[in-house]
Amino acid sequence: MNKPHELLTSFKARFGADASVYRAPGRVNLIGEHTDYNDGFVLPAAIGFSCWVGIAPRNDRKLVLYSENFRETRETDLTQLGVRGSGHWTDYPLGVAWALQEAGYRLPAANIYVAGDVPVGAGLSSSAAIEVSTGYALLSLLNAGHAIDRTKLALLCQRAENEFVGMRCGIMDQFVSCQGRTGHALLLDCRSLEYRTLKLPPQVRLVICNTMVKHKLQAGEYNVRRAECEDAVRKLASAMPGTRSLRDVTMEQLMRHRGLLSDTLYRRSRHVITENQRVAKVADTFETGQIEKLRDVMAASHRSLRDEYEVSCPELDAMVEIAARQQGVYGARMTGGGFGGCTINFVDADHATEFQRRVAAEYESAIGLRPDIYICEASQGAELVEAMAENLPKVTR
Question: Is 350 annotated in the active site?
Answer without folding.
Answer: no
